[in-house]
Design a protein that fits this description.
The complex is a heterodimer. Chain A is mainly α. Chain A contains 6 helices and 1 strand, in the order βαααααα. Chain A has helices at 15-40, 44-69, 75-87, 94-124, 129-135, 143-178, and one strand spanning 12-13. In chain A, α1 (15-40) crosses α2 and α1 packs antiparallel against α6. The longest helix of chain A has 36 residues, at 143-178. Chain B is an alpha+beta fold. Classes of the chains: A mainly alpha, B alpha+beta. The interface between A and B is large, with 50 and 54 residues.
Chain lengths: 181, 353
Amino acid sequence: MLGLENITIPIILPLGVMLLQVLFLLAAIPIEALVLHKMLKFDKKTSTFYAISINLISSSIGWILFFSVEPILPINLKAELISYIFFHNFKSQQTQALLILTAFIIFFLTFLMKFFLLRFSVISLKENLAEIYQQKFEKNRLKWERTSIYRLQNTNLVTSVLIANSLSYSAISLIILLSRK
Amino acid sequence: MQTLFKEIFVFFGFFLGIFEGVRKLLLPPKAYSWQTLIYLSVFSWVLSFLAVGYVKNLIAFSGWLFLIAGTAWYTTDDPLRVPGTFMPVGALITGFLVSVFAFGHPEDVITPRTIILWPTISAIITAIPEFIGGDDTTTTAKIPEPQVREKIIILVSSCILISCWIQFYFVMNNWLTQYPSLMIDNFQRSTFVVRVAEPETKTQAPEQNIPKNGVTILDAVQKKVEQELNKTSWSEVERWLLEATTEVKKIGNKVINQKLGEYEERKLWRVEPRIANIKSGYGYKLDLLSIWTGPSSHHQGYYLQKSCRVEPIAVSRRSSRVAVSESDPKNTVAEIECDRLSKFITDAPPPQQ
């Protein structure tokens, strides 16, 4: 009646996945917080919050992308994926090249996600969240000046997120390299 | 004697205390309290048994609402928090109920989705009171303070991450049901997963520990091949054996689609023959292989093998069996004899001739 027959005793648990992800987050968050603190002059607490939130949300979005891509993978790629997760090896040599390509795509996707999430987090902590939207359309006077400042801030934001992301990915790659059996 | 009375009094006092506690818990102090809602939910649950059709669903639906509201109320009365976070345990319970209510079915109440979305829903429930402002009489929507916003964002996003992990568990579980041949393998090398339950076959003899689907394929292929070759004339059989690779592949594909239709792993099995001469004129050795091309902890992969001997037998009009040399070749037919059990070999399949 409770439908528990669908949910049987677990045979395998993704404990390693969970622990590795926690480890990656623990490595990435301090690095990114430091970069944001040094380059964007946020105070320490705020930059830690930004780093935590952008990392948590971007990894969740990454998981959701994985879940939407996984069912439509062709059978040979799916076999390679299962092989890597369950047995830590690949069947064919071509997968290595594909893996590098995937890593590149993941890197740039996370970079983009982190950039937009950081902007979202900056907005989310503004004191007067409701007023911002109302004032948005009123101020036209110093528009040119404002946009140029905004653009400058934006480039600064892009570079710092890029540096933060690259540093945290280097740390993660190092961990992966060291954890190879 | 006095001490005995005292003991009895203490004893009674103890029970009285329990009774008082239970009474306090069960009896609503006033009509407007959480116990009322729980009783309403029990009441509607009982009523829903008596009703039929959509009325039953309606009553059950309102019962769920009462239960959720009641538990939410009770658990916000005195918040006991999950260690390390500001999420009350009550939100977990309420979240579970909401999740069951939203994603359960009448026949199976707890679905995977219920469990996957449980943490996320609980986090959202924890966050909701922060968005409600006002005093006792009026309620208004408000946007919480920046510090509270920080806490909410981190809580909700980490709960979403936990939901993703649970979803990943179900994805892997789905792999194991779709690719049951993975179960016989060992996951020792993996850094990502841990095997909790050992497969049942491990307790049996090691030669039992072979993928069932491979055995099913080979048995069916053997039966088909026997049907085609037995009692057919020897010259036809020799022609068949020349074309054996395509013939066996055809049979194999048919069998795999027939027997493994429900599994996705059917695309990862392949059937191939290997033929060797025993002695010229005296028959052939036909090996049927079902090769696993899917993931495996063995680097070379593995395959299952069943050996058959195909021999010419002479049929004369008088007796059924005569030695080959004595009869004329037009009367010889083939006889095929296969091993009863399939062999499990962890290596790359032998090269084709």
